[in-house]
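User: Okay, second chain of the day. Same drill as before: sequence in, structure tokens out.
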Amino acid sequence: MKDIVIYILALTAIAAIPSCKKASTDSGAAPEDVEVASAFTDSALIYKKYPGYLVANREVELVARVDGELVAKNYASGAFVKEGTVLFRIEDRNYRDAVERAQAALATAKSNLEYATTRYSAMQEALKGDAVSEMEVAQAKNSVEECEAALKNATAALHTAQTQLSYCTVRAPFDGHVTSASYDVGSYLAGEASSTVLATIYDDKEMVVKFSVEDDETLGRIRRNIADGTVDYGSIPLTFSEAMPHRYTASLDYFAPKVDTSTGTMQLQAIVDNVHNELRSGMFVSVSLPLVYEPKALLISDAAISTDQLGKYVYVVNDSDKVVYTPIETGGLVNDSLQIVSKGLSAGDRYVTKALLKVRDGMIVNPIEKK
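Assistant: Same drill. Structure tokens below.
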């Protein structure tokens, strides 16, 4: 029995040897490798994002202004068309007849005026020899004036008839994309009583970005920046709800003349070139408006900043390679990746950039400078 007890104690002692060795190894483990970067100073431009939307530079409804059957649609829905392209044709027989009648009436009016003018001249000569009375001369003159008025009316009537006839052909007023037609070929259009919308054409070579700023202070800052020349408002970054294949910037070109009393905001507009034909009217856009220029801003990576109940903080690695919890105050985002630090850090301070959940206040680390 005594031999059995001694054997068990020996096994226990042997099993304990690796545990003691492991504990000894852990207590002397090397510090954790931690990637760090140094805060630095540089000139910076602070942006503020505003929601906006796009509209075409020009948007025109193509309408039927005459009565008749729609006999042709000469484009593919959504296609790009050049200025002057015939898009729709409306039956024009009645309007061609009206032009011919107006032309005939004009010819008659010209003939009547020619006859009346010749007669009046003859009457004036006859009056010199007392062959006619002054009353007859006056009547001849009046006849000339009536014929002149009739000629003007006939001319105007012809212009009206020709204009009506021209309405039977609907052309593109400028280069642009055209929506699908509102009516099928064969439909009867009653355009004379009320203009009938056939489609809409968009001049979208350039797009207008519409957005609003919230107060006079912001607007005043923008105006001062423009006057001082410290900020370029000719290349305002734009982002969209879905990533676009190409990058877009806009040029500020309009300030509304009044404040919207319902919202307390003022509308601004910027122009963006639709060089890749990717932008469409109605698209929502985020406008990164540059507001503040900082010639000597203290910058750190935005991804290194954490937030708790006390506010924003970073983990600083001091000269003893110890992690120090450091509260900071920020001043704005720069280039979507850097954050301006207005309080809490100095240039050259090292801060943890990755694996933030692995470090803690007071921890000794092996800092690896980010390149």
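The chain has four helices and 20 strands.

User: Thanks, on to the next one.
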